[in-house]
Specification:
single chain, 85 residues, alpha+beta, TolA/TonB C-terminal domain, three-stranded antiparallel sheet, two-stranded antiparallel ribbon, 2 helices, 36% strand
């Protein structure tokens, strides 16, 4: 089985780090499954893994991302990293 070509991300919005997660020094990666519409906007997305305190911030950020247009809806797996400076 061939791996599907990934769609190019045209713009990414960094997630807002939840204040309580920052105070608790929670870091990590949230994996998301994202359905991308033909126009490049995000349709449905769901959390595949990661810390629950970071999941909603990752979902909120991914809704603002923009991908390259395509002929049909595609599904991508995306990782959003949280590591405060």
């Amino acid at each position: 089985m061939q791996e599907e070509a990934r769609r190019k991300v045209l713009s990414k919005i960094a997630p807002s780090y939840p204040e309580i997660a920052r105070r608790m020094q929670i870091t990590g990666t949230v994996r998301l499954q994202v359905e991308i519409q033909p126009n490049g906007l995000v349709g449905h997305s769901k959390v595949l893994g990661g810390h629950p305190m970071l999941a909603q911030a990752a979902l909120d950020a991914i809704q603002k991302w923009k991908w390259a247009p395509a002929a049909e809806t595609t599904t991508e797996t995306v990782e959003v990293n949280f590591n405060p400076q």
